[in-house]
C-alpha cells in the first residue's frame, strides 16, 4: 500500500505519515486506530511492532502491556527464501484461522 492509499483510507495526511515513518512525529491513539483500521490490522499488533523492549512498553502502558496473542503464541519476523516463506505463510494463515475460531468460540460463552 502506498502512503497516498494509506492517507486516503485512514484520513491521516501524507505529510504526517511521512513524519511518522521518519520518526519526526508521534501519533495519538486516535491516529493509530485510524491507521490500524486502514491497514485492516488489529491495533495491538501495531503497538507490539516496535523497537521498544517489553519493560518500556509496560512502563508506557502504566502497568503490564496487554498482549494480543494468547499464551503459547509468538509473533516473529524472518527473512526466508521463497520456498520456505511460502510454507511459513501457510502456517501463519492456519494459525490466524485457529485464533479467530478460538476468539469466536470464547465469545459464544
From TrEMBL:
CDD domains: HTH_XRE (cd00093). Pfam families: HTH_3 (PF01381). Gene3D superfamilies: lambda repressor-like DNA-binding domains. One of its GO terms (molecular function) is DNA binding. Keywords: Plasmid. InterPro entries: Cro/C1-type_HTH, Lambda_DNA-bd_dom_sf. Residues 1-46 form the HTH cro/C1-type domain. This is TrbA protein. It comes from Marinobacter adhaerens (strain DSM 23420 / HP15). The lineage of its organism: Bacteria, Pseudomonadati, Pseudomonadota, Gammaproteobacteria, Pseudomonadales.
